[in-house]
Amino acid sequence: MIGRLKSPPDQWRSKSSTISHYAIAVLSVAIAIVLVEFLTVFLHTEPIASLMISAAMFAAWFGGFGPGLLAIALAVLAIHFYVAPPSNSFALKNSLFSLGVAELPRLILFSIAALFVTILTSAQRAAEQSLRRSRDELLVAFEHQSQIKDALRQSEMYLAEAQRLSRTGSFGWDISSGNIFWSEESFRIYGYDPTPFVTLDLVLQRAHPKDRTLVQRTIDSASSDGKDFDYKYRLLMTDGSVKHIHVVAHAVRDQGNQLKFIGAVMDITAVKQAEEELHKTRTELAHAVRVSTLGELTASIAHEVNQPLAAIVNAAIACLRWLNRETPNLDEARRAVEWITKEGNRAGEVIRRVHALANKTATQEAPLDINDVISEIIALMQHELDSHRVALRMEFAPSLPMVLADRVELQQVIINLVMNGIDSMEPITDRPRELVIGSRQDKADQIVVTVEDCGVGISAENVDRLFDAFFTTKPNGMGMGLRISRSIIEAHGGRLSATNNNSGLGATFLFTLPLNEEITS
Ligand code: ADP
C-alpha cells in the first residue's frame, strides 16, 4: 500500500512539534536546576537526583522517549556539575573526562534509574495516548452508527409510506425454516394485526374459497420447483368484501444454498373495479352501436320476416282450398300445415336472432362453429346485399375447430365488416360488386376470418386512423364500428387488421381467434 505523502505544511508542523518536544527536555532540566539552586539557598537541602529524574519523567511524558533521553543526558551533566563543580572553563572541560571513581557508580545508577523511569513514562504516555485515540475512534464509530441507524429508520419510514401509497406490501419467505416476513402494508392488505409469526395458514385462510386451490397449488409448486411466481387471486375479508391482489415473487438462494422468496403483494382492487367499469361501459357502447346498426338493417330484417310470413299466408290459403273441396284432400292439407309450421319457425328464428342482437349486453362465451355464426348473420343481411347489388361469395374451410366466443359479439363484428364492404363498393359502377367472406385455420393454429371487397380501398392518409374512435369518412357515419369490432376481437384474444388488396381494388379486413385447447382436445 502506498503511504500518504506529507504535504509541506504537514512536514513543517511535524518538524516544529519535534523541536518543541526537545525544547521541553531542555526546559524541564533547566527548571530542575533552578529548583535545586532555590532549595540549596533557602532550605539547605540538595534533592538533585530526584529533581533530575522528575525532569526526565516530565520530558518523557510530554515529549516522548527521545526528549526523555536528552533530559537524562543533560541531568547527568548537571549532577556531575553539582557533585564536582569546575573552578573554570578549562576545568569544566576536563571535569567531564575526570570523574572520580566515587561518582561514577552514582552517575551510572542515576542514568539507569532515569532511563528506566523514562522508558516507563514514555510507554505509559504512549499507552495512554493510544487509549485516548481508541476511545475517540470508538466515539466516532458510535456516532457514525447512530447516524446510520437514524438514516435506516428514516428510509424504513419512507418505504412504509411509499408501500401504503402504492398499496404494495413486501414479504420474505424462507422455505427451509418456514419463516415468513410481512411488511406493515402486507398485514394491512390481508387484514391482519401485525404478528411476528406469519404462517401459510394465515395466507390460505384469507384466500377466497374459489381461489384457495390456486393459492395452495402455487405455494406447493413454488416450494418444490424453487421458481419465481406471479399470480393474481382474491381475498375474502372478514366483512364479506372481496379484494383482488397480485403477488410477484423472486426466488433467491442464500450462502447456505437455502431457497428463499422475496416478493411484493399489490392490492389491485381499484384497478380491477376500474377495468370492470370500463368493460361494462364498452359493452353498453357496443350494444348502442349494434342497435343503431340494426336500425340500418330494418329493411333487410323486415324482408327476412316477410318472406316466411308470405309463405305462411300462401300455405294457409292452399290448406283451406284442399279442405274446402267436396272431398277434402287431407294429405295435401297436412303438407300445407307442415309448410306453415316450418315457415313459422323460420320467421321465429329470424325474430329470435334480431332479439338476441338487440337485447344482449353481458358477454356469454360458448364453443362456436365460426361458419355457423357467419351464415346465421348473413341470412339477416341478404336483402341488404341484394338491394346494393352486391354478390356474396363464401369461402369457408370445412369442419373448422370450435372457438370459445360470444356469438352476438362476433356477429356484430361481421355485420360491421360486411356493411363497410357494401358502403365501400357503393361508388363502383364499372365492375361487378363482389364481397368474399372466408374462413380458415392458419399455421399458428388460430381461426382466420376475412372480409374482402372490391370497393374504393383505404387511402394512405386514413390507414392509421381506421380504428380510432369517431373516425369516419361517411356523411352519416358514427366512426365507432371498427373501434368496437377491434376491442371485441382483442377481448377474445385475437387481432383485427385491414389492408388494401394486392389487385389494387378494394380492401380486406381480417380477424383471428385463438383456439381454446380445452374445447379442441
Ligand atoms: P363508420 O362506418 O360509421 O364510418 P367504422 O368505424 O365502421 O365507422 O369505419 C370507419 C371508417 O373506415 C369508414 O368511415 C371508412 O372511411 C373506413 N372503412 C371502413 N371499412 C372500409 C372498407 N371496407 N373500405 C374502405 N374504407 C373503409
Description:
- This protein is an alpha+beta fold.
- The protein has three domains: 2-139, no CATH class; 167-267, PAS domain (Beta-Lactamase, 2-Layer Sandwich), CATH 3.30.450.20; 277-520, Heat Shock Protein 90.
- Helix content is 59%, strand content 16%.
- It contains 15 helices and twelve strands.
- It has helices at 8-42, 48-63, 65-83, 89-95, 103-166, 184-190, 200-206, 212-225, 269-296, 298-324, 330-359, 370-387, 407-425, 481-491, 517-520; strands at residues 168-174, 180-182, 229-236, 242-253, 259-267, 366-368, 390-396, 403-405, 433-441, 446-452, 496-500, 507-514.
- The strands form three sheets. It has a five-stranded antiparallel beta sheet with strand order 2-1-5-4-3, sandwiched between helices. A five-stranded mixed beta sheet has the order 7-9-10-12-11. A two-stranded antiparallel sheet has the order 6-8.
- Strand 1 (168-174) and strand 2 form a beta hairpin.
- Helix 9 packs across helix 11 and helix 13 (407-425) packs antiparallel against helix 14 (481-491).
- Mean pLDDT is 88; it is low at 1-5.
- The structure holds adenosine-5'-diphosphate (ADP).
- Residues 416, 420-421, 424, 453, 455-458, 462, 466, 471-474, 477-483, 507 line the site of adenosine-5'-diphosphate.
Helical region count?
Answer: 15
Mean pLDDT: 88
- Give the strand line-up of the largest sheet: 2-1-5-4-3
How many domains? Answer: 3
Q: Just give the CATH class of the largest domain.
A: Alpha Beta
SSE order, one letter for each helix or strand? HHHHHEEHHHEEEHHHEHEEHEEHEEH
CATH topology tier name of the largest domain: Heat Shock Protein 90
Protein structure class: alpha+beta
Assign the CATH superfamily of the largest domain: Histidine kinase-like ATPase, C-terminal domain
Q: Specify the overall morphology.
A: rod-shaped
Helix content: 55-70%
- Can you tell me the CATH architecture of the largest domain? 2-Layer Sandwich
